[in-house]
Amino acid sequence: MSSRTRPPTISDVARHASVSIATVSRVLNSSPLVARNTVERVQAAINQLSFVPHATARGLASRRTLTLGLVLPVIGREYFSPLLRGIEAEARRAGYHLLIETTETPNTGHSHLRGLGEHNTDGLVMFTDSVEDQELLRLHKNGFPVVLLHQTPPDGIDIPVISIENKSSAQKIVEHLIVIHHRCRIAFLRGEDGHEDSMWREKGYRAALKKHDIPFDPSLVARGGFHPDEAKEAVAQMLKENLDFDAIFTGDDDAATGVLAALHSAGKRVPEDVAVVGFDDAPFSRHLTPSLTTVRAPTEEVGRAAIRQLLKIIQAEKPEPLILLSTELVIRSSCGCQSE
């Protein structure tokens, strides 16, 4: 065996500078995507190790696609319009193209990543329940940039998350029904099973009831699925069972359209007989009859923030582990107040 000391490699430089091999490659190729302090750290490591880059090392940077991916379980809900607008605008501003993939397999409900990944994007924004945890673990293990929307990462991995204030907002809008409109039989429609936004909104709903000494009644909670048809069926079933309720927190604004349709079909007046409130402040909410009292979520800003965090990872900067964006109540007519 030769006793000569082997020449330093790009891996040595990456380890010495505490960055990825791809970041060293970007520095070698004078990429504008690397932060100045990171460039200085890599250059210092190169000088200290007397590293001489080979052509193959320089070629690694050519894998950069200047394309970002957005992964959604489905597209179709009104909610996604402002989210897509924010993501696309921020990606374009940074000089990136955007590819979109939906992952839910019809008739199974399982989500699989098929079209997007390391081969054609520089990083992915993942909407909640888009892929199984196993796929997130694989991407994280490979050091591939990922940001999650409205979903806690699997235990033991540090993928950044962008979300909104669900619990406190839900509590405020339910308390508005209790304190201002004296409603005490308030139904709640859950979202999709396992959806974290729905879980936190239900926690806020229950917190409001508890704060005002209103017993929780499980018969007043049903699945609305964040979907008009499912919400309509849920309320129709409540009415069929002659359940006593004087208000409905619909879970989100898409579900609210189904709730209003079900109440109208049953001859119930809104808000006189049943007050209705939603969540998100979708663009159509002000145009419903009556106009919908809801929570305004900064959905477009969620998309923008996700891209900004993803670019930080791509540029070997440290992202925020959790960004929780604030919301606000929007008071209109469906709760019993005067329209804005």
How would the blueprint of this fold be written?
Elements: H1 10-17, H2 21-28, H3 36-49, H4 55-59, E1 67-72, H5 80-93, E2 97-102, E3 124-127, H6 133-141, E4 146-149, E5 161-164, H7 166-179, E6 186-190, H8 196-211, E7 221-223, H9 228-240, E8 247-249, H10 253-265, E9 275-277, E10 294-296, H11 299-314, E11 322-325, E12 328-330
Parallel strand pairs: 1-2, 1-3, 3-4, 4-5, 5-11, 6-7, 6-8, 8-9
Antiparallel strand pairs: 10-12
Helix pairs in contact: 1-2, 1-3, 5-11, 7-8, 9-10
What report would you give on this structure?
With 340 residues, the chain is an alpha/beta fold. The chain folds into three domains: 53 residues, 434 Repressor (Amino-terminal Domain) (Orthogonal Bundle); 128 residues, Rossmann fold (3-Layer(aba) Sandwich); 131 residues, Response regulator (Rossmann fold). The protein is built from eleven helices and twelve strands. Strands 2-1-3-4-5-11 form a six-stranded parallel sheet, with helices on both faces. A four-stranded parallel sheet has the order 7-6-8-9, with helices on both faces. Strands 10-12 form a two-stranded antiparallel ribbon. Strand 3, helix 6 and strand 4 form a beta-alpha-beta unit. It is elongated and about 85 Å long. About 2% of the residues have low confidence.
